[in-house]
Amino acid sequence: MAKQNVSEQFVDILVRAGVRRMYGVVGDSLNPVVDAIRRNSAIDWIQVRHEETAAFAAGAEAQVTGSLAACAGSCGPGNLHLINGLYDAHRSMAPVLALASHIPSGEIGLGYFQETHPDLLFRECSHYNEMISNPRQMPRLLQTAIQHAIGRGGVSVVTMPGDIASQPAPDRTVEHALVTTRPTVRPGDAEIEKLCRMVNGAKRVTLFCGSGTAGAHAEVMEFAERVKAPVGHALRGKEWIQYDNPYDVGMSGLLGYGAAYEATNECDLLILLGTDFPYQAFLPDDVKIVQVDVRPEHLGRRSKLDLAIWGDVRETLRCLTPRVKPKTDRKFLDRMLKKHADALEGVVRAYTRKVEKHIPIHPEYVASVLDELADEDAVFTVDTGMCNVWAARYLSPNGKRRVIGSFSHGSMANALPQAIGAQFVDRDRQVVSMSGDGGFTMLMGDFLTLVQYDLPVKVVLFNNSSLSMVELEMLVAGLPSFGTSNKNPDFAAVARAAGAYGVRVEKPKQLESALKDAFKHKGPALVDIVTDPNALSIPPKISAEMVTGFALSASRIVLDGGVGRMVQMARSNLRNVPRP
Fold it and tell me: What's the rounded Cα separation, in Å, for the pair 100 and 386?
């Protein structure tokens, strides 16, 4: 058997860790690793047009599968392009291994062509960030990086000079069993008992849920029923907790709707479940707060806690629920359910008024039709900006659908690259990129990646020729919009010129058939929908002082743009409220 070089050993270890693809752009110092991938049938090299796309795609793949994904960039500018997508993956707790290939090892520190310092550049967006400067560091360094990414949930970066990658791998190296799944974390009995006493002593309990409730839907529902608690959620918690939820009171935050804010502020015990919700203006400061999180560094960094619980949400509730005394008083829960239904009824009119005749098309109408037509197990990737609003308000979760976006990092241009990673996981699963024209054009070159690999991603383009979320920020601050308009082409024609399916929609009556035809198409498709740039209206009582990032005063943040099928859920839940 021929002796392996470092690149071959590197690739073999990635395969052992479950990596099936590496996204990137080939070049110079990276060539030995890419060649090793070419000769290994268990892993594919995915050629993208921009390394930022590679990192976003790897992050999305990791979020869909829950397993390690990988990306790579060549020395200097190549790997530097990875950084934005790696920030997003890291903040989304997506296990990603990034290879930053490097200049020749003997030239480091001497101002060589394309020299950067990856060990410094990637420090803030990784759990582990080290350089292989000697072949004898393999495979231990790579194994350590993999275990950091999987075990802690986030990014590990391995820097490797091109000359090291080509050298023979050392003899008698230690290759140990790799950690490929994360364990559950159970709180101690003392913490469970403290929490039990607090719940038993509270008259009004509210649950506020984030992405940490993934896999814990049944446990949250059982606990909510036992203590008669309304259940609100953050944006990243929507897909995990809103469906089949008779206690749902909506979402809090800038994009919030319903009675989530009232439920979190009018209770006397608020339990934060698996959420690192960053907007302090929406959290109460005069009620008792408990936070449950699997990452202890998240505990208490958003609000003062009366009890911090380090643990997995599902395991914590499995321990807690049987010990808690059942509550029988539903007054608080029923009052919040009624507030929630009333709030949604109040905004639904904005969605229903003449939308089928309005030109330019209401984006709310587009999102609503998309929600109705998309598959029951579709994966939606959502651009930052107004597409976040439409996804939060119109996409209906059901336990099978996924909604992925740059919800913590807030980067533009994420939807198309994330759709690439999601689609590679399963070519038969419907993947829909909800793209804004600003985000789409930022990384539009990677639409060609869809064509090159015949990936059947459907790009639904909300084309209002503006950076409308920025215009909203300027409006709230009392500033005239400036630098926010885009002069756009006919994107459907661009898609067709690239070899994909493309259709342009300018009238509401064209929308449903255009989406259906695009969804039926076997390959990549783009639906360019000309939408109303003035679709979002703001309540009149709002001031610039209310804006701190996205933290607006919660009682005035309802964006008057409808809520789609969520009003039906609220009506249904309200019908279940017992009548005297």
Answer: 33
